[in-house]
Design brief:
This protein is an alpha+beta fold and 476 residues long. The chain is built from 13 helices and 16 strands. InterPro entries: MTOPVIB_plant.
C-alpha cells in the first residue's frame, strides 16, 4: 500500500485501506463509515475524534503493526499512538475490545485487552477503530482532503460496499453535520454490472461533478452520454510475482468545449485517478513511467509532459489539446478470497501498459475520426485538395467508358446529375474512410501504402516496440 503526504493523512488512509480489505473478504454487502468530530473553534484544545468502522470480517491485530513506522515519525503531541479497536467475527459469540499504544517500546505495555461484550446470539461482524488527533490549524485542509478522498472511493462503485463520511462540529449551538452518501446519476447503473462498467459509471459522475466540487451542473448531467469512453483490462493469473493481478483503465473524453457548456475553456492537463485494491493511492513509479512512455501520438494526443504532484497524483499535460477534457482512471488489484491475498497489489508494468493501450484502442475503434494518429491527421489534411484534383481529371475526360466506370466505382448512379462537387465529396469520403481504417491497424506494413513517408521512430515508439516483444513472450 502506497503512502500519502502528512502523518495524519497517512494514518487515515491506512485505516480506510484495511477497512476496505476486510469488506472485500466478506461474502455479504458491507458498509464503511468514517466519522470525524471536531470542536467548533479551530484554536480549541479539544482533539479531533476519528472513528473508522466497517461491517467486514473480523480484524487481525497484525494489521495494525504496520503502523509502527508511522507512529515513530509522528510527534506525540500530534498523535499519542493509541488506537481503540472493537472487533468481532460472524461466528464469534463476543465483541472484543483492545487498546493499542504504538508509542510504547515494550510489547507487554503497548497492548491491553479491555472488557468483552457478548452478542446474545446475534449474528454480525465488523470492526471499529477510534483515535484522537491534535486539533491543528490545518483541520479544514484535512477535512477537505477527506471529502476528496471519499469522492474518489465512490468512483469505483465497489459491488458490495457502501461508503459514508460524516463530519460533525461539536461544542456549538450551531453544530452542523456534513454527510457524503453514495449515489449516482447513472440510471443504467446495475448491481450486476462488471467492475469495469462500474468504474466507467463512477468516473463519469466524478468528472461531471467537476472533481472535488459537490455542486453538479444540470447541463453536465444531461450531457453525460456525449462523453466518449475507452476501456481496457489486463490480468495475470499465472505469473508467480503477480498472482491474480488485475488492471482496469478507463479514459473519458469530452470532445469539444461546446459539448459541456460549463467547461467553456479546454483543460490542458489531466490528474490521473489511481487506485490499488479499491482504495485511492498515490501512483506507483512503474505506472507513471508507463503513462509518459505510451505512444499517445498514435491516438491523436500530444503529450507535453507529466509529473507527480505533492499528493502523489500523476498529472499529464497536453499540447494543442483538441478535447475539452480528458479523465483517466487506473485500478490495480488482486483477487481477494482470503486475507493473506489482500495485502497490497503487486505492481506490474506490463499489465498497466497493456490495459492502457487497450483503452486507447477502444476509443480509436469506436471513434476513429476523432482519434487519428498525428500522422493520419496530417495525411487527412491533403484529402480535399487531392479529391478535387481527381474529380477534375475524371470529369474532364472525353472517354465516356472511363467516365462511366469511375462513376460506378464511386457508387454514383449513371442516371444521376453528376456534378464535380458530388464526385469530389464521394472521393473525399472514401479516402478518409481508408485513412481511418489503416490508422486503426497495428501492422502498417500490411496495409495500403501511406501517401507520405513515415517519420523516424521516436523514443516512445521504440518503447512500444519493446512492449510488443514482451507481449509476444508472455503470450507464448
Amino acid at each position: 500500500m502506497a503512502s500519502v503526504s502528512s502523518p495524519h493523512r497517512k494514518l487515515l488512509h491506512f485505516l480506510v485501506y484495511w477497512a476496505v480489505q476486510r469488506c472485500r473478504v466478506s461474502e455479504s454487502p458491507c458498509r464503511l463509515t468514517f466519522s470525524l468530530k471536531r470542536p467548533a473553534e479551530s484554536a480549541s484544545p479539544s482533539q479531533l475524534r476519528v472513528s473508522v468502522s466497517d461491517t467486514g470480517v473480523r480484524s487481525k491485530l497484525e494489521e495494525f503493526l504496520e503502523l509502527n513506522d508511522l507512529a515513530r515519525e509522528t510527534p506525540v503531541e500530534k498523535w499519542d499512538g493509541t488506537l481503540l479497536i472493537t472487533t468481532t467475527g460472524i461466528n464469534d459469540e463476543a465483541i472484543y475490545r483492545y487498546r493499542f499504544n504504538l508509542h510504547e517500546e515494550l510489547s507487554s505495555a503497548r497492548f491491553s485487552r479491555l472488557a468483552t461484550t457478548y452478542k446474545n446470539h446475534a449474528t454480525f461482524s465488523g470492526t471499529e477503530v477510534c483515535l484522537c488527533l491534535s486539533n491543528e490549524a490545518d483541520a479544514d485542509d484535512l477535512i477537505l482532503w477527506l471529502v476528496g478522498f471519499f469522492h474518489k472511493i465512490l468512483v469505483l462503485r465497489a459491488a458490495n460496499l457502501a461508503c459514508e463520511l460524516f463530519v460533525e462540529q461539536i461544542g456549538n449551538a450551531e453544530s452542523r453535520n456534513v454527510c457524503l452518501p453514495q449515489d449516482s446519476d447513472d440510471v443504467h447503473h446495475s448491481v450486476m454490472a462488471s467492475s469495469s462498467d462500474r468504474l466507467v459509471s463512477g468516473l463519469k459522475d466524478y468528472a461531471l461533478s467537476h472533481g472535488y466540487n459537490c455542486d453538479k451542473c444540470d447541463t453536465c448531467i444531461l450531457n453525460r452520454d456525449l462523453l466518449k469512453t475507452g476501456t481496457g483490462a489486463a490480468n495475470n493469473v499465472d505469473r508467480r510475482k503477480a498472482k491474480g493481478a488485475h488492471v482496469e483503465v478507463v479514459i473519458l473524453i469530452a470532445r469539444t468545449a461546446s459539448d459541456l457548456s460549463c467547461w467553456a475553456v479546454n483543460c490542458s492537463s489531466t490528474q490521473v485517478l489511481y487506485f490499488e485494491d479499491f482504495v485511492p493511492c498515490p501512483i506507483s513509479k512503474s505506472s507513471f513511467d508507463v503513462l509518459v512512455s505510451v505512444d499517445w501520438q498514435s491516438y491523436g494526443f500530444k503529450l507535453k509532459g507529466g509529473f507527480i504532484d505533492d499528493e502523489g497524483n500523476a498529472v499529464l499535460e497536453w499540447d494543442d489539446m483538441p478535447f475539452a477534457r480528458v479523465d483517466i482512471a487506473i485500478h490495480t488489484y488482486l483477487e481477494c478470497t482470503a486475507m493473506q491475498e489482500c495485502q497490497g497489489s503487486q505492481q506490474d508494468r506490463h499489465l498497466v501498459r497493456k490495459a492502457l493501450k487497450s483503452a486507447l484502442s477502444h476509443l480509436k475503434a469506436d471513434h476513429a475520426g476523432d482519434f487519428l494518429s498525428c500522422h493520419g491527421q496530417r495525411v487527412r489534411e491533403y484529402v480535399p485538395d487531392l479529391a478535387e484534383s481527381i474529380a477534375g481529371l475524371i470529369l474532364s475526360s472525353n472517354d465516356k467508358e472511363f467516365h462511366d466506370e469511375c462513376v460506378s466505382l464511386l457508387g454514383l448512379g449513371s442516371d444521376q446529375d453528376i456534378s464535380e462537387e458530388l464526385v469530389q465529396s464521394s472521393i473525399c469520403e472514401k479516402m478518409i474512410r481508408i485513412i481511418e481504417l489503416n490508422d486503426t491497424k497495428e501492422n502498417v506494413e500490411d496495409n495500403a501504402p501511406y501517401l507520405f513517408e513515415c517519420e523516424k521512430l521516436d523514443e516512445d515508439s521504440q518503447l512500444d516496440e519493446e512492449d510488443r516483444d514482451e507481449d509476444m513472450i508472455f503470450d507464448f
